[in-house]
Specification:
331 residues; three-stranded parallel beta sheet; binds NADP nicotinamide-adenine-dinucleotide phosphate; alpha/beta; binds 3-(2-carboxyethyl)benzene-1,2-dicarboxylic acid
């Protein structure tokens, strides 16, 4: 569901690359996509328009068409017998619905039987908790201060086109058009992702706070976030500051992270080696580097975390959940 979008296209690619045992693929989108085709394992499949009957005889429904579609059609798909893996924020904080990052809380997938829906976390949360979890297990994280540098592809296909068009317009002395963001994104940074809330934070910032506690199963972890849109096409970066209960040296943290599932340490400043969006894009690992002590507190660490927001941040995480579903639950 949402097969023609930025996330949906990556989902199809991911199913293909990971050789997911698909018997039949049904790409769904809106009537705007009538006539479009999706290529899967060399075959062209016609995109179908979403209707109430789309989920008959479907085993797994991957949703990425926005919150309102997920709210309306998620329960319908579940009632029709499909297990829904939903990429939107619609169901994430519902206490009956599991919110899963396979490297962190795969056991929560079992709770899909509550409502037939599993929620996929926000892209910025996913890449952060993959790195936090092993450090938390070793030293208990008390507090996290995170600032994000998020790619435009996180907003969708239209935002990718907007950044390209603005760059082309600026370099050819043409007027710059803005439709997706309230300000120009080319050569700019917008400390504004999703809507502003009454508490002064954006909804994206509060997603990071609430989702982190739920996935890690620990309400005592304090999180504060500033989320920023930057003129990068693919790959979100995060500056993460941690305070732990137990002291972790840089060497210990590096060793723990080097063994953590889904994580790759890229940290050799002398050779200019550190994670970057250009390197993270197009692959599935979460890269971490610039690992250093925060000398301003007793037990503190600073990290720089980068991942492909459309892959680990969305499509890959959803497909990993589906892989566990078929392996352990839908036999
Ligand atoms: P996108 O590029 O704008 O694609 C949206 C997709 O949804 C398209 O396939 C679109 O079909 C379809 N769609 C929209 N309205 C529809 C409707 N009324 N009926 C049927 N299909 C409809 O956006 P995206 O970046 O792929 O993101 C899609 C959603 O995934 C987001 O809204 C968000 O909830 C979620 N998301 C999650 C993460 C994450 O962190 N896990 C990251 C990014 C996005 P048409 O092409 O026919 O319009
Ligand atoms: C990432 O229109 C919508 O409901 C989608 C908004 C959106 C979300 C969301 O809140 O589901 C766009 C991009 C996300 C997300 O992952 O939280």
């Amino acid at each position: 569901m949402g097969a023609t979008g930025a996330v949906g296209q990556q989902m199809v690619a991911c199913l293909e690359e990971r050789r997911f045992p698909v018997a039949q693929l049904f790409p769904l989108a809106s009537e705007r996509s009538l006539g479009k085709k999706v290529t899967y394992l060399g075959k062209e499949i016609q995109v179908e328009v979403l209707t109430k009957d789309s989920f008959k005889d479907i085993d797994i429904a991957l949703f990425s068409a926005g919150g309102s579609i997920s709210k309306e059609y998620g329960p319908m798909a579940a009632d029709a017998g499909a297990v829904v893996v939903d990429n939107s924020s619609a169901w994430r904080m519902d206490p009956e619905i599991p919110l899963v990052v396979p490297e962190v809380n795969p056991q929560d997938i079992a709770l899909y039987t509550n409502r037939g829906i599993i929620a996929n976390p926000n892209c910025s949360t996913i890449q952060m908790v993959v790195v936090l979890q092993p450090l938390h297990a070793a030293a208990r994280i008390k507090r996290v201060v995170v600032s994000t540098y998020q790619a435009v592809s996180g907003t969708g296909q239209k935002a990718v086109e907007e950044l390209s068009a603005q760059v082309r317009a600026l370099f050819s002395c043409q007027p710059v058009e803005k439709k997706v963001y309230p300000h120009r994104i080319a050569f700019n940074c917008l400390p504004h992702i999703d809507v502003f809330l009454e508490n002064g934070y954006t909804k994206e910032e509060m997603k990071m706070v609430h989702e982190t506690k739920k996935i890690m199963g620990d309400d005592s972890i304090e999180v504060t976030a500033t989320t920023v849109r930057v003129p990068v096409f693919y790959g979100h970066s995060e500056s993460v500051n941690l305070e732990t209960e137990k002291k972790l040296t840089v060497a210990e943290a590096k060793k723990i992270l080097a063994q953590a599932p889904g994580v790759k340490v890229v940290d050799d400043p002398a050779k200019n080696q550190y994670p970057m969006p250009l390197e993270a894009a197009g692959q599935d690992l979460t890269l971490v580097g610039r690992i250093r002590e925060d000398f301003s507190i007793k037990n503190g660490l600073n990290l720089w975390v980068v991942a492909d927001n459309l892959r680990k941040g969305a499509a890959t995480n959803a497909v990993q959940i589906a892989e566990i579903l078929i392996q352990d639950y839908l036999k």
